[in-house]
Specification:
alpha/beta; 7 helices; Rossmann fold
């Protein structure tokens, strides 16, 4: 049985990924923000506190076959409306804490393992939320640089979804908002978390065996590159 550490596993894409990996027979260790309501065996680390996150992962001693980082936040406002605390928080959660986790996991993922980092189409096309787009661009760069450092034993792949239904960032919008988003895609539809989860699950198997150092777009054709 393979074991995957999955961040952001309590909602949206991360929850779908954790469920899909579990359904295919893998063991999932959730990486959660607080101990309140955490499932047994979860690793608790608040990504807003990078030092505490590093310490928690350093103390974690279970063997792993992979790490999936689906944790992330977006504040849905322009750079010009960000305060210093906002900037520190979004960079900590979206980029600095995942980097700290990966630094601690070097050499601790078994050969044949996989790291998947969830990015965003915003990393390529930009966003009204400038810092969000910048942090996701950093994730893309991290995929490329760490692929070389983890090779040849561990693959590193990024997945960049477009706007995805049923996530904290998209929930509760009026119907016309979803329709407008869908109409900006070639497929005239938005992705669901389970579709992104199926893609990540495929990467863990033979279909992804030759893939590393790449960021896969899953945006319905809303952005082509």
């Amino acid at each position: 049985m393979r074991t995957f550490l999955v961040s952001g596993s309590t909602s949206g894409i991360g929850r779908a990924i954790a469920g899909r990996l579990g359904a295919q027979g893998d063991r999932v260790i959730p990486l959660v923000r607080t101990a309140d309501g955490a499932p047994p065996g979860a690793l608790v680390a608040d990504f807003a506190d990078v030092r505490a996150t590093r310490a928690a992962v350093r103390a974690f001693d279970q063997p792993l076959d992979g790490f999936v980082n689906a944790a992330g936040i977006g504040l849905a406002k322009s750079l010009f409306d960000y305060g210093d605390d906002d900037l520190e928080r979004i960079f900590a959660v979206n980029l600095l804490a995942p980097m700290a986790v990966l630094a601690e996991l070097k050499g601790r993922i078994r050969p044949g393992g996989l790291v998947v980092l969830i990015s965003s189409e915003a990393s390529h096309r930009g966003s009204w939320d400038d810092p969000y787009a910048v942090t996701k661009g950093g994730i893309n760069a991290l995929v490329r640089t760490l692929a070389a450092k983890f090779a040849p034993d561990v693959r590193v792949v990024g997945v960049a979804p477009g706007i995805t239904l049923d996530t904290r960032m998209t929930a509760g919008k009026p119907p016309e908002t979803y329709e407008g988003w869908a109409n900006r895609t070639l497929l005239k539809r938005l992705a669901r978390p389970d579709e992104i989860a199926d893609l990540v699950a495929a990467l863990t198997g033979p279909a992804g065996a030759s893939m590393t150092g790449v960021v896969i777009d899953a945006n319905g054709g809303s952005y082509l590159r």
